[in-house]
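Input.
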Amino acid sequence: MRINKRLGVLGAEITDVNLNDNNTSLYIEIHHLLMEHQVLFFRDQDISYSSHKRLAESIGLVKPHPAYNTVENFPEISILESTADSPSKIECWHSDMTYSNKPPLGTVLRSRIIPEVGGDTLWSSMTAAFNGLSSNMQEMLKGLSAVHDFSHGFQETLSQPEGRKRLKLAIKENPPVTHPVINIHPITKKFGIYVNELFTTKITNLPKSESDYLLNFLFNHIKTPEFTCRFNWSKNAVVIWDNRSTQHKPINDYFPASRRLERITIESP
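Output.
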C-alpha cells in the first residue's frame, strides 16, 4: 500500500491495494488512514456490490438514504445518477444527512459511469476551517447551536410534480433537528465547523439577521482553497470520507453527459 497526500490539511490517494480483498488488517489500516487524512481516494477498484458493502461495514453500520433509488438486492447502496433528462440538483457544499438526529459517520462512494470531461468533486476540512478562525470567533461559536432541515436540502425536489408525495414519508421521519455549530470529533477529539449550506437554516437564539450573517460568513469561510482538495473521477474509483470532519461539493459541469455513482452511508455509533 502506498499513500500519496493530496493536500497538507486533508486527502490521500491510496495505491497498490485491492478493495475486493476481505482483509481485516487492510480494513484497520484504512480506518486509521481515514482518521488521519479525512478523505481517501482509490482508483481502478472494480469492486463488487458485496465488497462495497463489506468495506463500508468494516467502518460501521450502514445507513439507508430515504430519498434515492437503490441497487437491486442491496438496499443500502444508493444510486446517484445524473443525466441530461434528470440532472443533479445538489450544487452546494454540505455534509451528508445532517438533518438526522445522528448524522452519518462517513461515506463509501464508487464510480460506474463517468463523463469524459468535468464532474470533479471537492472536499473541505472542517478541522482546518475551524483552526483558521480567530480564537475569539472559535470560543463564541462553541456556545451556539443550529437547525438542520431535510426539507430545506431537498426543496428543489419537493417543488417538482409528485416530489412532495414521493418524499412524504422522509419528511415525516426527518423533522428539523438541532446540532452544535462546532462539533468535537469522537475519535480525534478535534474541533470542526458543523453547519452547511444545504441543510442548515438558522442559528438558534439569534435574531434572523445575525444568524444569516454568521452562517453566510461560515459558508464562505469553509470554501477557502487552503482547506480543500479536488478529485477528478475515473471509472471504478472509490472514495471514503469522514462526514464528521469534512464537507464536499459536486461540480456539475458535464451536462448533457451522464454520471453514475453508488454510495453507502455509514451510521454513527
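Residues 2-266 form a domain with the Double-stranded beta-helix fold (CATH 3.60.130.10).
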